Amino acid sequence: MSCQLTNIPEIGIEKSLSYRYYQKLIKLLQKINGKVLFIRIKLKRMMSPSSTKLLSKSNNFSQIKAGDIVKVKTKKEIQGMLDERGKHKGCSFIGRMYEYCGNNYTVLKEVNYFFDEAKQKMCKCKNIVLLEEVTCSGKQKLFFESCDRSCFYFWHIDWLEKID
Amino acid sequence: MEQMWEYCGSKFIVIKFVNNFFDEHKYKMFKTHSPLYILDGLICNGVVDTFDHRCDHSCYFLWHEKWLEKT
């Protein structure tokens, strides 16, 4: 028996032709945007190699376990950790996640492996946790409709503070 | 999915009606063929035969309306 995610294309039907073209355009624009950003970062690093952020080892992980209560750090603190792509050690922080800053949540799970739907393969990761009831609203910029899948956000442990 | 059998005969609260979903692989928004629902607390434990490791993605199961009965 396989995962529902691997069969997800079978449960959907394509949108109208015009919407399909619109989605293709969005995909293309995002690809171009990604490439431009990549070149800009490369150039910036070449010009000033000292500006490259040193990746410090997270020593928070052993302390955060499923069932723990954690506080999401402030917007300012998190923004200070993100790179030009809005990522921290490879983990994206989406704009919608800022609404959870400063609030307390219970850790649902530590993420060690996850099925990457885009790459269609299992990926290993570390220092990532899921928080109870903190799911994606599905609203995306440029898309008219929101996704109803309600996926849990991935939280890097550096964005969290354990509450005793 | 195999794990979904254990919930048969039990009562759950519908938390969402799935009308549209985003397919990350195809990078497209799709409309569902038929009505699907997400039930409160019913998430995948990640144990799947075809995977080498347990997936921690914790996705909500998608339930077809024909598998459910309103009480």
Number of domains of chain B: 1
Kindly report how far apart the N and C termini of chain B lie: 24 Å
| Succession of helices and strands of chain A | EHEHEEEEEE
Taken in chain order, the helices and strands of chain B follow as EEE
Low-confidence stretches of chain B: none
Rg of Cα set of chain B: 13 Å
Main sheet strand line-up of chain B = 1-2-3
Terminal Cα span of chain A: 41 Å
* Number of β-strand runs of chain A: 8
Indicate the mean pLDDT of chain A. Answer: 82
- Order of strands across the biggest sheet of chain A? 7-6-5-2-8
Low-confidence runs of chain A? none
Count of separate DSSP helical elements of chain B: 0
Q: How would you sum up this structure, described in words?
A:
The complex is a heterodimer of chains A (164) and B (71). Chain A contains 2 helices and 8 strands; from the N terminus they run βαβαββββββ. In chain A, a hairpin with a 2-residue loop joins β3 and β4. A 5-stranded antiparallel β-sheet of chain A has the order 7-6-5-2-8, with no helix packed on it. A two-stranded antiparallel sheet of chain A has the order 3-4. By secondary structure, chain A is an alpha+beta fold. By secondary structure, chain B is mainly β. Chain B has one domain. Helices cover 0% and strands 34% of the residues of chain B. Chain B has a 3-stranded antiparallel β-sheet, with no helix packed on it. At the A-B interface, β1, α1, β5 and β6 of A face β1 and β2 of B. β1 of chain A pairs antiparallel with β2 of chain B, so a sheet runs across the interface.
Note the main attributes of this structure.
heterodimer; A: 164 residues; alpha+beta; 2 domains; 5-stranded antiparallel β-sheet; 8 strands; 24% strand; B: 71 residues; mainly beta; 0% helix
